[in-house]
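RECORD TYPE: inverse folding
INPUT: structure tokens
STRUCTURE:
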């Protein structure tokens, strides 16, 4: 998540859509007063010349590393964080900033995105469950997956309405990000690194992972995204 006062934009970061790579690409263009939510230690080393800053409030300023659920439910005590939903950003940034700044995010075909999420969520599971098991069960060998359902829709909507100025298509990320940068006044070329692609070893087409039941399950979970953006299996 980035709130740039220098270029007057807010980047709302969704999951499994190239968000980390986009933050790494945009960070060098940000100013000292901009808000850059922290990435993982590994990713912060990649942007050491333009690191996370100005995000912390209260406990965050004390350097306390809090669980994700705490940050999500009590951002006023911690500060800005990645995957922060629009409702919280608007409340913390203020109506004037929210209304005046250019807001954008990235979205991805839900069936493709779910496969990527599967590899990310199960990357440390030994043995790794199959895709169908991941979708249909929250448990594997006594360990919780948490929910396999993603929450991107709530990142860039308020009251079920899209509230950003642009939703970049993941499959055209480089081209559309360049267009956004031109619109917000970033003149230097931005370069997208590959931040987390290493977690997916099996590069089969996403359709190969599904049967009829799991295809329809994902269609039901993400009905609003599919209807809004016209995704097809």
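DESIGNED SEQUENCE:
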């Amino acid at each position: 998540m980035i709130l740039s006062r220098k270029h007057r934009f807010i980047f709302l970061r969704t999951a499994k859509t190239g968000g980390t790579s986009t933050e790494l690409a945009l960070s060098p263009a940000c100013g000292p007063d901009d808000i850059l939510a922290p990435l993982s230690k590994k990713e912060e080393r990649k942007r050491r010349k333009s690191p996370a800053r100005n995000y912390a409030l209260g406990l965050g300023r004390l350097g306390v590393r809090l669980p994700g659920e705490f940050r999500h439910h009590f951002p006023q005590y911690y500060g800005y964080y990645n995957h922060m939903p629009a409702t919280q950003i608007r409340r913390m940034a203020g109506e004037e900033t929210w209304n005046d700044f250019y807001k954008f995010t990235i979205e991805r075909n839900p069936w493709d995105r779910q496969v990527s999420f599967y590899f990310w969520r199960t990357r440390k599971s030994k043995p790794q469950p199959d895709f169908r098991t991941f979708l249909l069960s929250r448990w594997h060998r006594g360990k919780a997956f948490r929910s396999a359902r993603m929450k991107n829709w709530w990142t860039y909507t308020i009251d079920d309405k899209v509230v950003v100025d642009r939703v970049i298509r993941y499959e055209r990320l480089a081209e559309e990000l360049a267009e956004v940068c031109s619109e917000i006044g970033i003149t230097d070329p931005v370069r997208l690194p590959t931040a987390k692609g290493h977690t997916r070893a099996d590069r089969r087409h996403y359709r190969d992972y599904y049967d009829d039941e799991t295809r329809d399950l994902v269609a039901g979970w993400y009905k609003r995204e599919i209807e809004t953006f016209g995704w097809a299996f």
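NOTES: The CA atoms of residues 120 and 198 lie 9 Å apart.
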